[in-house]
Specification:
By secondary structure, the chain is of the alpha+beta class. The chain is built from 7 helices and 8 strands; from the N terminus they run H-H-H-E-E-E-E-E-H-H-E-E-H-E-H. Strands 1-7-2-4-5-6 form a 6-stranded antiparallel sheet, with no helix packed on it.
Length: 204
């Protein structure tokens, strides 16, 4: 697991209370509530602090579709984009020449991230909730499933040369905690503006 205090502390408390993230709706709700309320941990919830750990950092070539990652990114077309996230929280689901497509969960407000995540749990390759657990996704699956209908504003194309850090891999046991970390870093627009636009995309 990533060596970050908010992950370790909440996971330890959850496991001791018999909750295993991702295994049930009750467990997911418990971890999300703990993440929202764990005020002491926000000190560790900045991109720089999260990326300061050496554990689980992987080179660009080590990206594995279906796992969750955080990384620094500088878009090629940032001058013409209305806004962009410089610290994505993604599930990559397709590799292409020179880059990859992924779901950047930051484009949804936390409550909608949780709803999308509930749907995504239907597409895990196993129920271990560890470093071997990943999503088995494709655009066709996302588009055709009612339980992932919030995905549209999250689909982004990333170019490998514009990835500006190694990847922080987040194990499945930590997914529900990571959803609530306030580490989105939007440029050229506020997060509220981004989330409002995303709701319009979903409704449209």
């Amino acid at each position: 697991m990533a060596n970050v205090y908010i992950f370790d502390d909440i996971l330890t408390k959850g496991i001791r209370s018999g909750q295993m993230p991702g295994r049930s709706q009750e467990a997911r709700d418990w971890y999300r509530k703990q993440s929202r309320n764990f005020k002491q941990a926000w000190y560790h919830s900045t991109p720089t602090k999260l990326m300061s750990t050496e554990e689980k950092l992987q080179p660009v070539t080590g990206l594995e579709p279906g796992r969750m990652y955080m990384f620094f990114y500088d878009p090629k077309h940032k001058k013409t984009l209305p806004y962009y996230d410089t610290f994505p929280l993604i599930f990559p689901f397709r590799t292409v020449d020179g880059g990859f497509y992924g779901l950047n969960m930051h484009y949804l407000q936390p409550q909608l991230r949780a709803k999308l995540m509930d749907g995504l749990y239907n597409y895990t390759n196993n129920s271990k909730m560890d470093q071997t657990t990943k999503l088995t996704l494709s655009y066709k699956i996302l588009k055709g499933a009612a339980n992932t209908r919030w995905f549209k504003p999250c689909v982004k194309h990333y170019l490998n040369p514009h990835v500006k850090s190694r990847f922080l891999a987040i194990d499945a046991a930590e997914w529900d905690i990571a959803l609530w970390l306030p580490v989105e870093r939007f440029e050229k627009a506020s997060k509220n503006k981004v989330w409002a636009d995303s709701r319009k995309v979903i409704q449209g």
